[in-house]
Predict the structure.
Amino acid sequence: MNAPSTSPLTDVVDAAPPQAPRSRVHAPGRWLIGLALPLALALGWELAVRFGLAQGRLMPPPSRIFAALTALARSGELTTHIIATLMRVLAGFALGAVAGTLMGALAGASELSRRIFDPTLQALRAVPSIAWVPLFLLWLGIFEASKVALIAVGVFFPVYLGVAGAIEGIDRKLLEVGRVFRLSQAGMVRRVMLPAVLPEWLIALRSGLGLGFMFVVAAEFMGASEGLGYLLVDGQQIGKPDQILAAIITFAVLGKICDAVLVAATRPLVRWQDTARSSL
Amino acid sequence: MFTIERLTKTYADGTRALSDVSIALEAGEILGVVGGSGCGKTTLLRLVAGLDRATGGRIAVDGETIEGPHPAVGIVFQEPRLLPWLSVADNVGFGLVDRPRAERLERVADALARVGLADYGARWPRELSGGQQQRVAIARAFVTSPKVLLLDEPFSALDAFTRASLHEHLLSLWEAGRQTIVIVTHDVEEAVTLADRVVVMRPCPGRVYETISVHAERPRDRLGVGFDKAKRRVLNALDRSLRAPDVERDRAAAQGDALWW
Ligand SMILES: Nc1ncnc2c1ncn2[C@@H]1O[C@H](COP(=O)(O)OP(=O)(O)OP(=O)(O)O)[C@@H](O)[C@H]1O
Ligand SMILES: [Mg+2]
């Protein structure tokens, strides 16, 4: 895709509307506002426990959670767990996203294949995904394969639905523009259909990634010796709420970082969009 | 030479949108098409552009029958229909991708200059006003130099001032290439300003009701006698076309009735 080249004109134009430059200036400020509430809550709890207003045994104060976190980090355990979890999510996400995109493209592009596949897929979607766990364990064993499969299933459906819906929703009027200029089938796909579905595809990938993080916890609950999910179960079994909270916080940060990376990596592709999505 | 012979279109649901329409245009001629709503004007253009198949009849450019989208025929839709993911310049060059880059850039720049948007090539379509977007769409259709250019109510969403300036842009593009132009419009004055001939269509089924030639020099003087006379004749024909089939009987009483199209 040819982005408009930068010229004096573009600079003038870009400075005026609320585009990239302005939001970049305001970005730190927005960050701080978003941080205010959690910081205030954390500080309040810390003080409450310090001054003996609350016990903090089941809900440890931030300082203890932080201590648990640093202990885990210093021993290198945290890195091991993060990498284990991340690898599972990425593998499952890759599988689910590729399969979901292909099936979605098939269902969106051809009415016949949609009639064939969609009812089955919709029925499978109605199954709570955790219900697959015993089957996957039987089929794929208790190690990585079954976990990755579960995550892939979770990622598959939002991507499939998003892509199929996006293709069905392509504006007929833009397709006619392609026809008037006699684009080949391949040209139509590359020059009209792909760019047209791109924004919705990226949104589908994002929700797929989010579900991937949900499912990795379920996958790691079903028996893992490492991973952030294991850290949760372990914390419960040895009665260490600070470890549980440390794992939860790590999950939150990790999920947010992955999402932000996905958004940042794909933003240049959808810079043309005329939407109010700057905050997403 | 652009000819439409006995063109008929019946939609799948049985709607007879066009019946037996025949029009012949010399190269470089500008034809205005007016008529009540639903009389098949858009259908006519879509058939010529190859976006729909005719039920019967023939369309030919310089003797070559047109059966689908054809490089000799370009179209400007009622909406700009720019591709939002391409810059203005890339939108204009959309039909030129198989040309060498240098030629493409030159022709795009030339077309943009002719519609008064020389400095806007690097913008996104969303950063243009409605009238500017429509100008880009016109440039996009002109830039591949089709022999026949179809415009379907291209200016109907714009105010009178913008419209008048777009007429100038359109005529300036036309002077450079002398294409054959078919322009559908609801605005009789617009038809008389631009066209050499105005075809009045009547509905159910859509067909040609009357053809009126406009003899006046371009640029046309809206206050001139010839202009006014042609405008009256078109209005009159339009009025009668809408009250057909009792045409002859009511002709005398027709004067002054409100036009509802
Ligand atoms: N896809 C379609 N299927 C069935 N009937 C159609 C279709 N498109 C148009 N028609 C019918 O064909 C007739 C002509 O429609 P058309 O759009 O060509 O009219 P028009 O002259 O462009 O009207 P307007 O001035 O309101 O744009 C109308 O009666 C319309 O209802
Ligand atoms: Mg129409």
The domain at 1-72+148-245 of chain B is CATH 3.40.50.300 (Rossmann fold). The first strand of chain B starts at residue 2 and ends at 10. The radius of gyration of chain B is 19 Å. Chain B touches chain A through 32 residues (CB under 8 Å).
